[in-house]
Amino acid sequence: MYFRPGLNFGILIARQKIYYLALVFLVLNVFFTGCSDSGPVGAIRFALSSGPSNLDPRFATDASSERINQLLYSRLVEFDEKLLPKPSLAEWQLIDKRTYRFHLIADRPVFSNGEKVTARDVVASYRYVLDAANLSPHREAVSMISDIKIIDDETLDFILTAPDPLFPAYLHIAVLPEKLIESQHDFNTAPLGSGPFELVEKVSEQKLVLRRRADGQLIEILQVKDPTVRVLKLLNQEVDLLQNDLSPEMAHYLGQQPGIHSTAREGSNFTYIGFNLADPLTGNLEIRKAISHAIDRDAIIHFAFNRTVVTAEAILPPQHWAGHPALQKIPYDPQRAKRILAGQGYDEVNRLKLVYKTSTDPFRIRLATIIQSQLAEVGIDTEIKSYDWGTFFGDIKAGNFQMYSLSWVGINTPDIFKYVFHSKSLPPNGANRGRYHSRQVDQLLEQVLTMDTYQQQAEIYRKIQTILHKDLPYIPLWYEHQQAFLNQHLTGYVLSADGNYESLNSIRYSQTH
Predict the structure, then answer these.
(1) Confidence of residue 22 (pLDDT cuts 50, 70, 90)
(2) Which of 172, 306, 312, 346 could form a disulfide with 341 if both were Cys (CB 3.0 to 4.6 A apart)?
(3) CA distance 513 to 507
(4) Count of H-run helices and E-run strands, the chain
(5) pLDDT of 31-42, one tens digit each?
(6) Euclidean distance between CA atoms 84 and 166, whole angstroms
(7) Apex CA 253: angle with CA 247 and CA 255, to 5°?
């Protein structure tokens, strides 16, 4: 789908919104004719745009899998409000500059089979990820570990290749039972962890049933790809909870409906346009610069999002302890974009042609068409190709793209830079999906391990972000707000900045229901 150059952007968005709202209201009216109120049931039903693709946390990389796995498995550390590490399964102390000793806490949770978590389980989990033969995508994130020693059933030492004051923050790998690791148990189909939930049934790829271990409350995780259908199911009480992945029009509409409670907060989920730097076109920095100046992020935020997002310049938000609030905003400058393209031999006669991949989510397609229209204004023709989530994400991991848009969610620590931008982090060893290579960034990522304090590390990470801002392996777009919509009979659900599902620990039906 193409928009003709010169079409007024505001009119374009207005027409899209009017058409979209009309379609939604028409479907709603048709749907509710003759529908009955089925009322809530015992299980709390949570509808997602995409379900988890892998319940084995050693291999999961998509956001839905990461969030569900946080419910099924425990980790050594969690994060406080400042996103600094705090004890979860264990407390720690620095023995010497390169040795951290971890003591498992006395009241730690047990695995869902009733067995106690021991130091051997922790060591087995980390050694599996560190073994290059196992091809875990999380290996590079903990590659600073040179050895792990068991002291006793409740104590272990991590020995590092170099001092790192932030090391405990990297220990967010899930802990699995040693015996099941050794027996090559299939955790994807039969997960077994020590988290607050356990899997009751994996009905299909579209439905999981979890049990909250504290009180037996059942949570059904349902994949409902189409956002309109998700909204209809919530209104008809076929599901009880939605979170994110709705257009601003749908979110506004839901917020006005009786029987629906809505909640929102500013978020840290980072949306960006990624590039394949191995491609002769998108691997050209000048072309990426032209694209960056052709995109009017402020207009998109105003017209398409109704200001429910804020402009981003880097993966980490500026308020993060390692964020970079001094980064200069990439300016919208279509004339500059045209000059850059002209310098590369492109003009109205010889227009640059690119392929832009996205998911089949209607709102993401709409955003892609808006960006397509803005790029067309400066002489870049983009062909939008949309795929179901599995195919789309598979192409991105395989490097089968020129440009695409995605979001990073749940980013708590700056080791994301090593995971995404180190030259050794190419899939399956990490998430350097754009094949970015910078000797300077690699050196800084290694230098950061030699810093003695968080403050010193933050300075290095800001240098890295400055380089990335110039090299443009991705174009930062915005941080999206978190939104949730619940059946009015539910209470106790509080949104987090990164959009995790931890409030499923506390959600419940009200006493009056």
Answers:
(1) very low
(2) 346
(3) 14
(4) 14, 19
(5) 443 333 333 348
(6) 9
(7) 105
3-state DSSP assignment of residue 129: helix
What kind and span of H or E run contains 38?
none
Residue 352 tokens, joined: 């640059």
Q: Mutual orientation of helices 362-378 and 285-294 as an angle, nearest 10°? A: 110
The burial of 470, by beta-carbon neighbours within 10 Å (0-12 exposed, 13-18 middle, 19 or more buried), is given as exposed
Residue 509 clears pLDDT 60, i.e. is over it: yes
- Give the residue from 84, 53, 79 showing the smallest Cα distance to 66: 53
Alpha carbon 341 to its chain's center: 32
User: Percent of the chain, pLDDT > 90?
Assistant: 66
Q: What is the pTM of this model?
A: 0.73
Nearest to 447 by CA among 410, 411, 417, 413: 417
Average of per-residue pLDDT across 8-23? 45
SS3 509: strand
Give dist(CA 500, CA 478) in Å, integer.
Answer: 18
CA 244 – CA 108 distance, rounded (Å): 32
Question: In sequence order, which residues have a C-beta less than 8 Å from that of residue 114 and are 6 or more positions away?
Answer: none
- Cα–Cα dist 322/198, whole Å: 35
- Contact between 370 and 2 (Cβ < 8 Å): no
94: β partners: 100
